[in-house]
Design goal:
The protein has 547 residues and is α+β, with helices and mostly antiparallel strands. The chain contains twelve helices and 24 strands. The protein has three domains: 93 residues, predicted glycosyltransferase like domains (Thrombin, subunit H, Beta Barrel); 229 residues, ATPase, nucleotide binding domain (Nucleotidyltransferase, domain 5), CATH 3.30.420; 72 residues, Actin, Chain A, domain 4, CATH 3.90.640.
């Protein structure tokens, strides 16, 4: 197969921006079979030639959507060609950019107040709050609990329908999305690629451009020290906070304390505040909404974990301002998920929302006896999520690889990130299959040649790996119930929210703990963003059609 790219635009069209250090996807009408070995004579946009040999791993032939192409795992990259190919990978990433159109995205120096606009102001240190700050690095942090939070607004004063649309944004720890109410119906808005959510990752390229979402995910696979995952975790945090020390220690990006003690991150020799790294994600979601709605978007409702205090909410508002969102309302994630369920039409007792996301866990008890939802009690664990399930699988696979080859992958930043990504894929597979394989090609390079990691995992084995993590979520539920003097039998129904609640072991554990089968009224991974959009409608007196 021959492929010639006269320019980077043509390169992106041909390769669909999907290229990594171990393989690539080629959009091509060439017919091939899975397992077939093919040779690619590639002429890069800079004029250089490169010969690659790979094995076809998957074939796409969706004629209805005009999608054709081959996924290729590289097997024959010579020692001479390898540096050249990696150079090509980096160049490809630099031309898959998202360029925020705001000066407030420019990195700041530690000594300076910051770019134009409101300078970063560290939130006041929490004293006497429910957020526990004394967790040891090896211990699970105590869940943040808040009893009887303020009720949802009652008798909201009707206002004239907003000329500028208001959107709901689920700024998630692992994935983010945006929704709006259109003609009485809640719609989760798509991006240009057709996806309704983006990975919560931000990367910086060598030329200073910012990439987010899938582009940052691809960059992370080859340059993890240029990408920050889940920047939301560090919003409003202090660098010396004991609770975040394990997270800081695991980052591939260097960190330091700012003048006020806040966390700053260094990427490619430049210093960023956490708000500056959150802003491009919010900006991307805002532009995604504007493209779908064909209007400017400057107002939004943002969702936060129950553990967020006023200081962390203030840091989120600052990031939103940097992203061009001038007016922002905030709602707790489980409360937003409760809005999405519409259970108040049929239930007249207490119900609960079990919200297990990618990076945080929240649980709320809601009184649905009236038309206004009243939150009775809520609890959350800031450091518990689907990422912990991925880590459990990755740890098991890394241990097996070490026993077999005496090579420790956890000490290799790039390979460990690749293993975590493979573990996440395995986790998703096991939600619908009884067994799968954790696979990382070229996981280690030795004098005898590259070594692949292939670790089979069955669903019972996976369930055993993740049981301690799931139990932590149930302990948080028990704490909230105890605080409100309730028993599981007092709840009329349990509703699921968050993508991790798709895991069969999670659903089985919830059923056993509460003594009833949990319910799903909307897709769990979209419950929070749908609820945020419904809350928008309530604030601005929009009518929603309930089916």
């Amino acid at each position: 197969m021959r492929a010639k790219c006269s320019g980077w635009d043509r390169f992106r069209e041909l390769f669909s921006g999907n290229i990594s250090s171990s393989g690539l996807f080629i959009a091509t009408p060439v017919v091939a079979e899975e397992g077939e070995v093919i040779t690619i004579q590639l002429t890069a946009p800079d004029g250089g030639d490169l010969e690659l040999v790979g094995r076809v791993t998957h074939v796409i032939r969706d004629e209805s959507r005009g999608q054709k192409g081959l996924g290729i795992h590289l097997e024959g990259v010579t020692a001479e060609a390898c540096p050249r190919y990696l150079e090509l990978v980096r160049a490809a990433a630099e031309h898959c950019t998202v360029r925020p159109a705001t000066d407030e995205m420019i990195p700041i120096d530690v000594e300076e107040e910051g770019p134009a606009g409101p300078p970063p102001i560290p939130p006041p240190r929490a004293t006497g709050s429910a957020v526990q700050r004394g967790a040891l690095p090896q211990a699970a942090p105590r869940p943040a609990t808040r009893a009887m939070p303020p009720p949802l607004p009652k008798n909201v004063r009707p206002v004239k329908r907003a000329v500028v649309p208001v959107v709901g944004i689920d700024f998630g720890t692992s994935r983010s999305s945006v929704a709006a109410v259109l003609r009485g119906e809640v719609v989760v808005l798509q991006n240009a690629g057709g996806s309704r959510e983006i990975p919560s990752l931000v990367g910086v390229l060598a030329n200073g451009s910012v990439v987010v979402g899938a582009d940052a995910q691809r960059l992370r696979a080859v340059e993890p020290d240029s990408v920050v995952a889940s920047p939301k975790r560090l919003l409003g945090r202090y660098h010396d906070d004991p609770e975040i020390q394990p997270y800081l220690a695991g980052l591939a990006v260097p960190t330091l304390a700012g003048q006020g003690g806040e966390v700053l991150l260094q990427i490619r020799g430049r210093t960023f505040s956490v708000a500056q790294l959150c802003a491009p994600l919010l900006y991307s979601l805002r532009k995604q909404a504007e493209e779908q709605l064909k209007q400017e978007v400057t107002r939004a409702v943002l969702t936060v974990p129950v553990s967020f205090d006023e200081g962390r909410n203030g840091a989120l508002r600052q990031a939103a301002r940097m992203a061009g969102l001038q007016q922002v309302d905030i709602i707790d994630e489980p409360t937003a998920a409760a809005f999405a369920q519409n259970f108040n039409r049929t239930f007249r007792k207490l119900v609960a929302v079990y919200d297990f996301g990618g990076g945080t866990f929240d649980f709320s008890v809601v009184d649905a006896a009236t038309s206004d939802l009243q939150v009775v009690a809520t609890a959350g664990d800031t450091w518990l999520g689907g990422d912990d399930l991925d880590a459990a699988v990755a740890q098991t696979a890394a241990n097996a690889f070490w026993r077999q080859h005496d090579i420790e992958l956890r000490h290799q930043v790039v390979q460990w990130q690749r293993l975590l990504m493979a573990a996440e894929r395995a986790k998703r597979d096991l939600s619908s299959r009884e067994q799968t394989v954790v696979e990382v090609s070229r996981a280690a390079l030795t004098t005898a040649g590259p070594l692949d990691l292939r670790h089979p995992v069955t669903r019972p084995e996976f369930d055993e790996m993740v049981a301690p993590t799931i139990q932590r979520s149930l302990d948080t539920c028990a704490e909230a119930l105890e605080l409100s003097t309730l028993a599981p039998s007092d709840l009329e129904a349990i509703y699921l929210s968050g993508g991790t609640s798709h895991v069969p072991a999670v659903r089985a554990a919830v059923t056993q703990f509460f003594g009833k089968t949990p319910r799903v009224a909307v897709p769990p991974e979209r419950a929070v963003v749908i609820g945020a959009a419904m809350y928008c409608a309530r604030l601005y007196n929009e009518q929603i059609l309930v089916t």
